[in-house]
Protein 1
Amino acid sequence: MTLPRSSPGASTRGARRARVMSLPDAIAECVRDGDTVAMEGFTHLIPYSAGHEVIRQQRRGLTLIRMTPDLLYDQLIGMGCADRLVFSWGGNPGVGSLHRLRDAVENGWPRPLAIEEHSHAAMANAYDAGAAGLPCAIFRGYVGAELKRVNPNIRAVKCPFTGEELAAVPALRPDVTLIHALKADARGNVLLEGIVGVQKEAVLAARRSVVTVEEIVEDFGPRSKNAVILPSWTVTAIVVAPRGAHPSYAQGYYKRDNAFYIAWDRISRDRDTFLEWMQANIMNGGRDRNGQDGHGAHDGRDGRDDHDGRDDRDDHDGRDDQGGGARS
């Protein structure tokens, strides 16, 4: 099932219904140099296809927002797309550091990167405030924390009713949010199920949004109790991008590619090795004949999800199966 396609030059503001577009056209229209860009998905449904197209189109001067930035943001930073990062926890989940992020912060390569670090709670509340059109988020948090010593955007306010001191941070209002979802329906609504992060809030807070999906269906049918449906009027563009979250996973479609997360540590440590890999796999070999992001043999293997033969089931039983802390 497909929705009517829209010409790529049409205005995105005030749109009352999501439009189906190609990935190159959606990113070209919605992501601009200097934008504040959120790409969300917690463990599950990380929007790799959309992020890779941002890299291919060589966007510059971006402020990137993300709870738990992992490999995708390492790639964006290493390819010079970002000037600033607003985040909570950054790393290769269960493996170690993000070497391109670290190189940018410590050595200014390939360009200096300013960072604004928050807690998970602050980021979630800030997205919620942005979605509600509020200027800031007020919540209980940062009690005894030291982040406010290095982040001037963490403030304190006194409740006018109780006198309680509360934390306050600016609302997050991205220019554009990119997410990956499981399905869109014939009316342009979008379905997320499984582990759901702050995708809903990030889309509602943004001026524009691009949602890549595994497929478009006539109707969603039975849904799980934690299902999130984004109405068509909240979404600017829908892109059909099968395997668009790989090497993360999409519940019911494919598993998390644990082997690639491990391989990325080696690929990203050295600048030249990183650039060679990005040129071969994202820049030069990154799209298939339909213009979609390629998800082939990222590290010289055959692209299968379970390279090491382990059972990396979609739900992971709620545990981090690589021995790390919070996974992104």
Protein 2
Amino acid sequence: MRRPRCTPVIVLAALALACGGRSAPATGAEPAVAGAVPGLVSTDELVHWQAEGPVLLLDVRTDVFAYLKGHLPGAEYLNMETLRASEGGIPTRLLSADAYRELFSRLGVDPARRVVIYSAGETRNIDATFLAFLLGGFGQPGVYILDGGYFKWQLEQRPIAVHYPRIPLVRYPDRPFRPDTASLADVRRAAAGEGGVLVDARSPEQYAGREGAQMRRGHIPGAISHSWQNDLTQAGFGHVWKPAAELRRAYAAQGITPDKDVIAYCNSATEASHLYFTLHYLLGYPRVRVYVGSWTEWAENETLPIAVGPRP
């Protein structure tokens, strides 16, 4: 059962001169923390928020040593692999609600305070969207991803810190954890044409079966190929989300429309979380889920069919 969602109010990026000119993807009033759903924040807007009051910054870049060399002032580090573990032998499964509550308590995540997540920016946006997906599963208000990430912030010659922040511990609320996930049974029904559209967020090479680390290569039969990187555009030397209208047209051209039940998958749910963020939060698609097991689970089960080549 899906919980009701608020209509996203999105604060999208307006690029500074250091990264080249570009029209802002969308405009809208700044949401209050209470009741807001995940969205984007530009570097300019983040500076404004920091001047107004405390903002919890989470650095989810892959390498902790990159954080040690420099990070946004006030940011604390979180390695994305802290957010998942094997379960029943299958890698990269979600943790329990209690495990996430304990982790968010240690990080100082407070429903009354904005949370801004950033990754490298030119790559690995998927780590930021995965954390936003989990926080959204708790109904956490005021969650934003820094559009362009650390790379854009650094290119604009904004302040960089090496000292660690001192963030007080909190008790994360004991609220239900209801991430929008699809089970293996849900995906099997969709693959059989019995409900929903499957969208593969991996690269075209992995989708076609030319690349991949799993024991079988290819894709789930019937799945549409839409790489998560297709949702980004280059701005200067960095990458930011495309304008909302352009994103909407691109998805609609592939038959991925708001009236459908969309199930996104990838290798291990991170790339799929990028599609989820784009479709559900930025474009307002009402029924989007992530198949957490993704190709890692599907490919290993030799009783399940696979398809190869560039077409569904």
Protein 3
Amino acid sequence: MKSRFLAGVAVFGAVTLTIGGAALAQQAGRLEQIIERAKERRAQQPADPNATPIPGPGDYRFSFVHGGNAREYLVHAPRSYRADRPTPMLLALHGGGGDADFQADDSKYKLISKSEAAGFIAVFPNGYSRFSSGILATWNAGACCGPAQKNNVDDVGFIREVIRRVERQANIDAGRVFATGMSNGAMMSWRLSCEAPEIRAIAPVEGTDTTAHCSPSRPVPVIEFHAADDPNVPFNGGVGVGPSRVNYTSVPTTQAKWVALNHAEAVTKRVLTVNGAHCDLHPAKRGGAVHDRHRRAQLAGRRDAAGTQAAIDGDQRQRPDVELLFVALTLSAAGGQAKMHHA
């Protein structure tokens, strides 16, 4: 009986080892495919190491060394771009484990389409990656995430240099430089709002503020999007199901922090309700973010928006439409603070 049991354990162990080995081989094969696709993209569009002027509409890839690391950023100039006319710029930051190409893929986030519709230049910086292809990149957003945070990579300095380079390469309206991001990229947008005075407003999606210290030089309007059932970055804070194992700040704590930093009203009012979501507004107090209807309308192509700082929260299965995100981003650019919840 004992020998049969031991034999059974040995067989089970062998089967487990085989299955585990197959899973590892599958993951390795998948990683190899990702690397090959990244190499193909870069072969089709090699990165320009110089801050070459952007002559007109189109897609561009640039690289430079920052902090001893080779870094890249993509630029999309819409068809409406003219070198003699100042144009707003949106920095779009990918999530942890992603890359700039994924964030710029119009089938994923439709940011290229929105750039064309609204007339802003879209810039996609690539996070810190241990791979020359730039894949599986992360951002040092404070308490998160991955190798970028563990190695204390100067991502704020990198992104600020990207802004300076693009301002030399194209005709950028320095008063309309905005940032959005997904998950780890959203967290990075919070850090930028603390440390990069060039950023005038942010629209983080599914990522809370993980900074320990924050002293913005001016109020930075915010619209925050967050699903109430997000398992990776829980709405009410704590450790999510993702690989980072970070004890995340909650959405309410993040909002309270920025209501104070932005001199906004603590009491909210409901300003928008759509299927599966609603938006709560913290209006700006005196000394808060400046209300500027003309610039707001120019960025999103809408003239009926009210100044807000916002957060969108709710059911992960009913994410806000990208059009709504950018209309809301324009709302936040005007002043105040609001929050939008998916219900």
